């Protein structure tokens, strides 16, 4: 029996009767799904799309119902059915992992030694530096990893505070929150190509936000930033700088921004800079020192990166590091609130720190550097391959994100799991992307383009033939 | 070589020199750790403590440094050393898991069949109902689980929206955010015994918040709530109700609160109720129908529960369900923001939904009910054992949280990993807590009390002897 049938045929106990619906005017989810733009289905590359809009009928998730025990099935048959579902799912995961190209996730890792850890409910609830009474935690790994990042970004172990987050968004939510709590009337500045979590933070935190236009590269437009800073003079500035934008991998130049702040009269007690380093913040320290470095030697307030991106991990995670003096603002006493913990989340995944510790320890600084170099090299290989095949590309100097024309075949986009925005798509050349894989991809892309071109030409021909017949 | 030595002896490359510290006045983390109250070390039970305060020297986390490759060690020796660290850590996890009593986590689960899943980077980034292009996701399991909860809380599949969160805090942050976006000038009402994330949300979201006193049981004081609602008449109400408070397991009565809202003239278009069901919200549906049920048949706005609590999972997670019509407010267009996704986090753990799906499927509705019954029964067994041994206890009728006098021996508190607040401690009788374990615990507790009493008596005696000698 199919699991869907199975679940449908065995209704849950009486509490769950179908008539059990509140008597409000109905607002149906499936009638409000997504907008459709650009001719192809608008699947948001990073899902920052409205939940409401005209109906579409594809890209809706399927559901695997929770399968209740059923009189028709023995316990063994049921267990076998569950094992089959999981087995099929794992096969799908293998295939999807093999073909993936579009998201900045390093899918190559070997955590075999750590497999037994899923027997334990590991939880680092609260502050990483102070143990709670819950003993099943991994703070020793977490603090080890945080110290590693503190050294990477050049801040004394005693002067930083930070934690391992659930994802890049939590790092940005935390950085901007710390900025706001230190500058309660601060205006948030961020480029229009910032990750969507940045403007989500502004909305959540009720901050005035200035969305600054970008240069062609995707970098923040320094002149526009300057004008906005001048216009809001009198209010402190909370700035989000992108160390690699989501779509084009563009790096905002910290030094130029610091110069703009100086020119416009913002002294260090009047601004807070959060660096969103999602992917590239983890790569830049390993490049030659000509790059505009992110370091706490400069007057920045916080840096965050993702852990499942460049390092690679089964679970999404990230790291945020700030100055301890700034995080103290979160513990100021607000009489009617009295909420004074310093992380965004409460319970915190205790497996993530162990994954990060394990990879950093096994690869070491040198291993990380080699991975970065190979990615940068292979990004150029992809760019050259595409250009030699006649495809226009863009690759920022400080980036492994190769941008090119959005493929017109939706099936191709889905097959290679490309993130698209407007009329562009990108491949992010991560450590698991080999030259062989890039070769396959380019051949497939060129064939997809050829199919689209032939179809377009055929349409013209058939229109001409129809016109001929009519004439 | 010890890993700490090892890491210290192999400095990272030049970028990481020790002098690399920004020249600001120093604020040292270890000089500002925690407050010390109640005579024993104040380890926050759920870590909702200020990060700043007088120095304490214990409960500071240790750090396992990331171990760089080292010329003195061969690759094999290094791998062996890493395996030894992980092996020792797993032993510690086993011991700590065995002795745990204080937190509402079900530590008994068997996800052996799912172990291979940690080979994959599973990520449900964005909305659960609309697939992103990233193919390595588990939305089919997520939507299956969400549908199960929708049936549990009696809302039509087409009328709800929800997602699987990282933890209980994210559920509360989401519920209250949805409340605020539907009622931008809404005042937040919650009892003083609410989880700390509730008032954290008020601070993050810049909402006016009213902290309502509680009854002795830990329930919200309905008279005080009424007075506060009257005082703020004219502004909509966003209410957080506790379906089991963190410390005493007290359940706010949804029906009484609805009656209070009616009496004070708040119509359904003037309030939003979020139910924080962390632990007990997952248990209450399985009790007899005399309990004041949480259901979307009543005019509530959202419900959240944790997944790692009653269900049990290796990673913290949770579920939040709201009405689709309410979540649409998150997608309204705000010109300078343009952030319109509906989850708090961006990347989302894709393993968590599979754990939940697997347990719910294997246990089925009946299995869950049996677990709830056993926990309720064993909570009463613990209460009776403690009382028969002369220990005063408290156990709310709708609760598996047994509250008693805080043990004076800190080592005892740490051994059994009890969550304490002020002068009380509690044991939460989860499915993994057997009667045998409770027996061990009570015997140990009574012995601990005896040691403390004897020591106190001895102090009196020695003071008397000293006075005698002086006389």
From TrEMBL, chains A, B:
Residues bearing the modification N6-(pyridoxal phosphate)lysine: 309
Residues making up the signal peptide according to the UniProt record: none
InterPro entries with a match to the protein in the record: Group_II_Decarboxylase, PyrdxlP-dep_de-COase, PyrdxlP-dep_Trfase, PyrdxlP-dep_Trfase_major, PyrdxlP-dep_Trfase_small, Pyridoxal-P_BS
GO molecular function: carboxy-lyase activity; pyridoxal phosphate binding
PROSITE patterns: DDC_GAD_HDC_YDC
The entry's keywords: Decarboxylase, Lyase, Pyridoxal phosphate
Pfam family, one: Pyridoxal_deC
Any one GO BP annotation for this protein: carboxylic acid metabolic process
The protein's required cofactors: pyridoxal 5'-phosphate
NCBIfam families assigned to the protein according to its UniProt record, in alphabetical order: PRK02769.1
Family the entry assigns: Belongs to the group II decarboxylase family.
The protein's name in its UniProt record: Serine decarboxylase
UniProt organism field: Astrephomene gubernaculifera
């Amino acid at each position: 029996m199919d699991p869907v049938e199975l679940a449908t045929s065995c209704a849950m106990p009486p509490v769950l009767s179908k008539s059990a619906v509140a008597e409000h005017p109905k607002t149906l989810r499936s009638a409000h799904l997504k907008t459709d733009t650009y001719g192809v289905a608008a699947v948001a590359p990073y899902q920052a799309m409205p939940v409401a809009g005209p109906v579409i009928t594809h890209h809706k998730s399927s559901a695997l119902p929770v399968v209740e025990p059923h009189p028709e099935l023995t316990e063994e048959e049921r267990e076998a059915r569950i094992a089959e579902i999981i087995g099929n799912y794992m096969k799908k995961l293998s295939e999807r992992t093999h073909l993936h190209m579009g998201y900045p996730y390093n899918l190559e890792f070997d955590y075999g030694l750590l497999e037994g850890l899923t027997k334990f409910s590991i939880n680092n609830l609260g502050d990483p530096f102070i143990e709670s009474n819950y003993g099943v935690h991994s703070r020793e790994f977490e603090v080890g990893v945080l110290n590693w990042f503190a050294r990477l970004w050049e801040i004394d172990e005693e002067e930083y505070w930070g934690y391992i987050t659930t994802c890049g968004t939590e790092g940005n939510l935390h950085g901007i929150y710390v900025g706001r709590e230190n500058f309660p009337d601060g205006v948030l500045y961020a480029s229009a190509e910032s990750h969507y979590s940045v403007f989500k933070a502004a909305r959540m935190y009720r901050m005035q936000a200035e969305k600054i236009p970008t240069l062609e590269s995707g970098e923040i437009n320094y002149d526009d930033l300057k004008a906005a800073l001048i216009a809001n003079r009198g209010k402190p500035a909370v700035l989000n700088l992108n160390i690699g934008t989501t779509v084009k991998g563009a790096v905002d130049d910290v030094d130029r921004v610091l110069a703009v702040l100086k020119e416009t009269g913002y002294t260090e007690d009047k601004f807070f800079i959060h660096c969103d380093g999602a992917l590239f913040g983890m790569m830049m320290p390993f490049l030659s020192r000509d790059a505009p470095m992110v370091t706490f030697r400069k007057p920045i307030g916080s840096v965050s990166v993702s852990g499942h991106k460049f390092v690679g991990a089964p679970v999404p995670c990230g790291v945020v590091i700030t100055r301890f003096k700034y995080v103290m603002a979160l513990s100021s006493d607000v009489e009617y609130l009295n909420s004074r913990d310093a992380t965004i989340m409460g319970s915190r995944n205790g497996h993530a720190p162990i994954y990060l510790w394990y990879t950093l320890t096994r690869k070491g600084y040198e291993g990380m550097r080699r991975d970065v170099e190979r990615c940068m090299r292979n990004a150029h290989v992809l760019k050259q391959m595409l250009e030699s095949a006649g495809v226009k590309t863009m690759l920022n100097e400080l980036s492994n994100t190769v941008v090119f024309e959005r493929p017109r075949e939706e099936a191709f986009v889905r097959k290679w799991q490309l993130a698209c925005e407007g009329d562009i798509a990108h491949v992010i050349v991560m450590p698991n992307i080999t030259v062989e894989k890039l070769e396959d991809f380019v051949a497939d892309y060129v064939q997809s383009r050829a199919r689209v071109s032939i179809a377009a030409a055929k349409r013209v021909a058939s229109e001409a033939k129809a016109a001929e017949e009519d004439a």
